[in-house]
Inverse folding.
């Protein structure tokens, strides 16, 4: 069974640029969630995708957007990068159905640095 | 609004000693509760979860947690800590309306020989 994978591992961008992060969900999981973890903080929910549609969103501006593909993989796009966007971005997948939706399995994350 | 409080920012224990990490939550109904562990530079690994039923749940790596509704707590315990347990531990509650997990700020565990 393949776990959640994310790419790239590390990324350095300049303020104002755009970035795309990628995630492949765990086998059998059809729901993908994205979290931002700033240094020294707990992860904060960005949004969730199910059946290729956004299915819940946290308190993040519209310049954070995403996609889910038919194979359940997902992308996180961030436009007009700001210094505060520097963080570890975590992708989590879960099966759908009742409490299982919340049994989320995380990838290793993408470390984004904005300079 | 839901919230999760982990009152201990940093805990140091000796190898072989017992461990208890505290977690308090605020939620209107019976919550889904989780403990995750994060090693430096890594993603989060699910240690255990509580959905319903027996209030004492067993997890991986010898961890257990007890759900106490009267105290709104879900504390994580381990009877004998190993050096490899040094990591950051996060308690989380499911926000059922928004389909996401709400995390505490974490407790950093240091294990000394």
């Amino acid at each position: 069974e393949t776990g959640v994978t994310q790419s790239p591992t590390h990324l350095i961008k300049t303020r104002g640029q755009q970035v795309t992060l990628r995630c492949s969900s765990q086998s059998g999981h059809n729901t993908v969630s994205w979290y931002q973890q700033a240094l020294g903080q707990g992860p904060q929910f960005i949004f969730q995708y199910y059946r290729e549609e956004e299915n819940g969103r946290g308190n993040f501006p519209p310049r954070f957007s995403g996609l889910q593909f038919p194979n359940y993989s997902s992308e996180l796009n961030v436009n007009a990068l700001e210094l505060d966007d520097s963080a570890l971005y975590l992708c989590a997948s879960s099966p759908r159905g009742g409490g299982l939706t919340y049994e989320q399995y995380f990838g290793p994350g993408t470390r984004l640095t904005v300079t | 609004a839901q919230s999760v409080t982990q009152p201990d920012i940093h805990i140091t224990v000796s190898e072989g000693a017992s461990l208890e990490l505290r977690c308090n939550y605020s939620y209107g109904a019976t919550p889904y509760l989780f403990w995750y562990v994060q090693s430096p530079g890594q993603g989060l690994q699910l240690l255990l979860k509580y959905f319903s039923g027996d209030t004492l749940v067993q997890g991986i790596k010898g961890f257990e947690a007890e759900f106490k509704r009267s105290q709104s707590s879900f504390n994580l315990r381990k009877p004998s800590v190993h050096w490899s347990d040094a990591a950051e531990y996060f308690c989380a509650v499911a926000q059922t309306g928004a389909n996401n997990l709400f995390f505490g700020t974490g407790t950093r565990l240091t294990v000394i020989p």
